[in-house]
Write a structure and sequence with these properties.
- This protein is mostly helical.
- The protein has 2 domains: 6-127, no CATH class; 133-369, Hypothetical protein af1432 (Orthogonal Bundle), CATH 1.10.3210.10.
- The protein has 16 helices and 5 strands.
- It has a 5-stranded antiparallel sheet, sandwiched between helices.
- It is elongated.
């Protein structure tokens, strides 16, 4: 069944905001209220010709519909977000056959200055999207995150909180990271091309968390293709999600420095894998593999890299897989100070590093997986 396009969805948002705002300004029988409401009712009804339901989800300042992050919603999108959030609504679903009177009551309630709880109806479903971290249930998290676009944005946000809690030794909610790992494993089980599920970087502040989620998505697909399965696959996902937690030990002015680092600054950067392993080592119910990956993800196949470890040390295969995924996503990501590298450039860098930086067999398997 075809989905309605972005312009049609945005048209509904514009009509929705217009109906609510006019109902705030004018008496009930005013012609503007009637015309705005009629446009909204018609646009929603028309959408049901292509899909049996219309669901809007709010994630921070973003609006998501049909698994797509809506762009260019402008002031109407901001107002739509404010209207729903002001009434404690983060998920709104309108079902096929929506009666005119139910939609009218919803708009009237949203426009009302006396804030009361807005009730769901037979054709209007209302809910909260962001889960209370003290009440997280893995299955609930998986179900709410199955929508890929929603999962990528939600996971990036949750990962920021997880990293800060681990650094401060306050991390108690292992269900949250396990839920994320379970969802990533489910994504792989759907046999989706990993390049189709990678999130895009929206801002400099989002880079670390979004990039880390992408590394986890790539790593779990990589591991699945190599034959890992079951609980091991989930442990690999947890390790990939937590591998870069040590980066929180690097001061922002060093992490975001545009020019070359001093010797002292470079030493701080090269110490972050050890810091990450120490952070994770203090936590309970986190697989030991996560601590190993945090320590080793900047070690090269030939034992060079950092932190400096015994010359004969060879990093764990999962650490090496995470390293390849890390380099790949970093190069394909658009940043304020650099353009995304072309696919052939990325492939050549990985191929050039075979035998020294990367395990040759892993590189071949990874490039085969990411063939377009």
């Amino acid at each position: 069944m075809d989905q309605i396009n972005n312009n049609e969805i945005i048209r509904i948002i514009v009509d929705f905001v217009g109906a609510v705002n006019n109902m705030k300004l004018y008496p009930p029988n005013h012609f503007l209220i009637k015309s705005c409401f009629e446009r909204l009712f018609i646009s929603i009804t028309n959408s049901f010709k292509q899909t049996p339901e219309l669901t809007f989800s709010l994630l921070d300042d973003d609006i998501i519909a049909y698994g797509r992050l809506l762009t260019n919603t402008g002031l109407a999108g901001e107002s739509f977000n404010e209207i729903l959030r002001g009434n404690n609504i983060e998920r709104l679903t309108l079902l096929e056959g929506l009666p005119r009177n139910q939609l009218h009551s919803l708009i009237s309630d949203l426009a009302s200055t006396s804030k009361g709880r807005i009730s769901a109806t037979s054709h209007i479903k209302l809910g909260k999207l962001i889960l209370n971290e003290t009440q997280v249930n893995i299955n609930d998290y998986v179900e709410s995150a199955i929508d890929l676009s929603l999962f990528k944005q939600k996971a990036a946000k949750d990962l920021k909180h997880i990293y800060m809690d681990i650094k401060g030794n306050k991390f108690q909610n292992t269900d949250l990271v396990r839920g994320m790992a379970t969802t990533i494993t489910k994504i792989f089980n759907k046999s989706i091309n990993p390049l189709q599920v990678l999130a895009t970087i929206k801002s400099t502040d989002d880079y670390t968390s979004v990039h880390t989620v992408n590394v986890a998505l790539l790593t779990i697909c990589f591991a699945g293709n190599l034959g890992f399965s079951g609980k091991t696959l989930e442990d690999i996902s947890v390790a990939a999600l937590l591998h870069d937690v040590g980066k929180l030990s690097i001061p922002g002015e060093i992490l975001n420095k545009p020019g070359a680092l001093t010797i002292q600054e470079r030493a701080i950067v090269e110490n972050h894998p050890l810091k990450g392993a120490q952070y994770i080592g203090k936590q309970k119910n986190i697989p030991k593999l996560a601590m190993i990956a945090a320590l080793e993800h900047h070690l090269k196949h030939n034992g060079s890299g950092y932190p400096k470890i015994h010359q004969k040390w060879r990093p764990n295969i999962i650490s090496q897989m995470i390293s390849i995924a890390d380099v790949y996503d970093a190069m394909r990501s658009e940043r304020p100070y650099k353009k995304a590298a072309p696919q052939n450039t990325i492939n050549n860098i990985l191929l050039t590093g075979m035998g020294s930086e990367f395990d040759p067999n892993l590189v071949k398997a990874f490039l085969k997986m990411t063939e377009i």
